[in-house]
Amino acid sequence: MQERYFSFEFFPPKTAEGTEKLRNTRAQLATLRPKYISVTFGAGGTTQQGTLDTVLEIQREGIEAAPHLSCVGSTREGIRQILATYKDNGIRHIVALRGDMPSGMGEIGEFRYANELVEFIRAETGDWFHIEVAAYPEYHPQAKSPRHDLENFVRKVNAGADSAITQYFFNPDAYFRFVDDARALGVEVPIVPGIMPITNYSQLMRFSEMCGAEVPRWVAKRLEGFGDDRESIRAFGLDVVTALCERLLSAGVPGLHFYTLNAAGATKAIWQRLKL
Prior knowledge:
- Its cofactor is FAD.
- Keywords: Amino-acid biosynthesis, FAD, Flavoprotein, Methionine biosynthesis, NAD, Oxidoreductase.
- Helix content is 47%, strand content 16%.
- Helix 4 (114-125) packs parallel to helix 5 (146-158) and helix 9 (230-250) packs across helix 10.
- The two termini are 17 Å apart.
- Helix 2 (48-60) links the parallel strand 2 (36-39) and strand 3.
- An eight-stranded parallel barrel has the order 1-2-3-4-5-6-7-8, surrounded by four helices.
- By secondary structure, the chain is of the alpha/beta class.
């Protein structure tokens, strides 16, 4: 059986204080020896420099870094330059996404879909980059139908993706069904579950509304019932997410990708509970 791998996701900090906080978070999570750390990228290149700076710092620390690259609002030449910069700096791993249009930006750019970006990266750089793409077990919020969403995913893989990370979810059956459906259409690449630790009720509901992830009603009601009791929210969240990870790992998933939100505590606690 293929060895499981674990990874973490950060976003580029916008302040000196945020930079220091992220360094502290990385120092704590680096002890868990992740396979790689991914760093998000604002659509249209809005956090391009921050992504690059963070990625290079992670590489210098001896951990594989995987910058996100979103293509909406971008030109081919702009993406070509970014790829060249990453290549020159020895980056070998990219998370290729469509991304959302930044507010106030009128032009969609020269790429409409992520499969076009994957195709472009392959055409420009051959097999230099390991390319990750996104998968949506509970369907992309803008998808016309579950079938349409699945076909989009297959197009990304066929364009040259090496593996996929899912949007976070709390219903493992949605993930298992998605993987079965993808396999039935000939997809063989690893599909790694994305894991969102629960530490803040209102933040979780806001994120889930935006990305189409379903928070089970019983979970939402329990969290809502804790009010401002942050300790109870954290303790309950750890129970829920640990149980989810246990079920996924026991079913033989290829690994887990943690959306850390630039904090170490909850991810580390889940890791310890799982005895990883």
